[in-house]
Amino acid sequence: MRWFGFGFNAFAQICDVDKSDEGESCAAAVKVSSPTELSEHVDGNRRWKTSQITASWSRRAALHGDGELRDSCVCVAGFGSDVSSCCGTCVAHSYGCVNVFISETHLTLAFPHKIETWDLQKKEETPSWSMDLEAQSDCFAGLTLPLVPGGYIQSNPPFYRPLSAHMGAKRLALGAEHAVLLTASGAVYTWGLGSHGQLGHGGLTPEEKPKPVEALWGMIMGSVSAGGWHSVCVSDGGDLYVWGWNESGQLGLPSQSLRKASQKKEDCSKQTGASSPEDPQEEGKQEDVFISIQAFPALVDVTPLCEIRTVSCGSRHTAAATSEYGQLGHQTFSSSDEPQRVEFFAAEQIYVVDVVCGNWNTFVAINEEIDLRIENKHRLEHLEI
């Protein structure tokens, strides 16, 4: 797979120091305005492809490999990393890694027979936490970090938190102060702080233990994600459900703060003489309904109508990939409360297979083989016509 990134890049966590569009240091380019392809890991004469990316506010961790576990490794780009390297600093103790998860302070690596959590702020020779999987390696099959056998890994000590085996956990997403869990049966559970409605239970109170999101009961969900203070999930049918904080329009619902900012710009334009004729029906127009906190799951109307395949949340933004040419949800310097397509991928007819959000940036994976099949199909259709 090939990966692209865009958004916050103050620590060079997206692109190399000499690959900015203006030819200046990418470490100084705080914002990457358009999708920029990430460099592959080079080891001698070998180029290893990136199979997974996970991101925090100032760092990006990438799992590289050539299909063989013994040849895989993890590179960390961003704060504290080697900015002269094409893909960041290679983590010495990561060879053979099969899954990775990064927070702002710790890096968790999963191997076939063990899981380790390392402190990114200290140069230690032993992990801060570890779990031996030899006796329970079968239980780890199908799980992805931060889920581990019997529980999950959180960002700060104590790292390991147990989960009931009866829940049948399949996926887990961690927000700033809450967690969203997807079970094998497609049910959604949440817990943690609920001050911004991010738990989806209809109130703003916290929950110490996993509690089912009753508004979604009976509907089978296929994926979940958690932002700073908002949550999203995708049903098996490709419908997108959102809840929590909507201050920056991250839910795709009308945001009053964004409309006020837009109105302020319009007022400034009018003062400079760039105003447009007033609409005579404007005075009788009903006031718009805005949503700052959505305490229950809401179905998002994505236009044009499409089936959502996967979704990811940043601190205050959301990105989604569809089943067509991989259109995404948000990508602008100006905040938006309406889902917008990233034209770069649609124009190039690039098929997006995965999307991963850091706090303030977005990473997108494309499948070259699918792109080639689509191109060949179009050529065949042209010949038949």
Notes on the structure:
The chain has 385 residues and is mainly beta. The protein is built from four helices and 26 strands. Helix content is 11%, strand content 36%. The protein has a five-stranded antiparallel beta sheet with strand order 3-4-5-6-7, with no helix packed on it. A four-stranded antiparallel beta sheet has the order 2-1-26-25, with no helix packed on it. Mean pLDDT is 82; it is low at 19-28, 280-285 and 372-385.
List the helices and strands and how they pair.
Elements: E1 2-8, E2 31-37, E3 41-43, E4 46-55, E5 59-65, E6 73-78, E7 89-90, E8 99-102, E9 106-110, E10 114-119, E11 129-132, H1 137-140, E12 147-148, E13 151-153, E14 160-162, E15 169-174, E16 178-183, E17 188-192, E18 207-212, E19 221-226, E20 230-235, E21 240-245, H2 256-271, E22 293-299, E23 308-313, E24 318-322, H3 343-347, E25 352-357, E26 361-366, H4 368-384
